[in-house]
Amino acid sequence: MSALPEGLKPGTWSIDPAHSEFGFTVRHAGISKVRGRFSDVEGQVSVGEDLPNSAVTATVDAKSFDSGSAGRDEHVRGADFFDVEKFPTLKFESTAVKENDGEFVLEGNLTIKDVTKPVSFDVEYSGTAVDPFGALRAGFEGTTQISRKDFGMTFNAPLDGGGVLVGDKVTIGLDLAAVYQDA
């Protein structure tokens, strides 16, 4: 049995989209990194009496992708990458929550373009706080790395000096705020 971290109460916590981010980083042209984020994320953290009895679900609106470049955003939302018209959402459903010496691992299934693969997020619990409106909030940060090709995103272009335009490895970063729902 793995005890809950201090301040994290059993019950349902809703992800607060206004204070959460689902983002990623990918190598561009072999020399720099491009960052993007999805602004529309929703989900729940169901905290059990202990960590193994806890679960996380999240859904992301693929159309909410933003990298700060309108042309790139349109391309990434298109058929070469997310194909948001055919696959409007990305989903995550946990299969296990584990703790080892204060380090947390969130295992689950990530679905992009109707392809589901297991992933494992290294998670940092940031603690809890009561906001000025009386709501109890918890913070979590997590990272994982995936192969975009595993999810059917194979677009690329060769570079004159060798290499390719878009790297395969994508680092996904989560910065989530969750609001306690049980009274």
Automatic annotation (TrEMBL):
<dbReference type="InterPro" id="IPR007372">
    <property type="entry name" value="Lipid/polyisoprenoid-bd_YceI"/>
</dbReference>
<comment type="similarity">
    <text>Belongs to the UPF0312 family.</text>
</comment>
<feature type="domain" description="Lipid/polyisoprenoid-binding YceI-like">
    <location>
        <begin position="12"/>
        <end position="179"/>
    </location>
</feature>
<protein>
    <submittedName>
        <fullName>Polyisoprenoid-binding protein YceI</fullName>
    </submittedName>
</protein>
<dbReference type="InterPro" id="IPR036761">
    <property type="entry name" value="TTHA0802/YceI-like_sf"/>
</dbReference>
<dbReference type="Pfam" id="PF04264">
    <property type="entry name" value="YceI"/>
</dbReference>
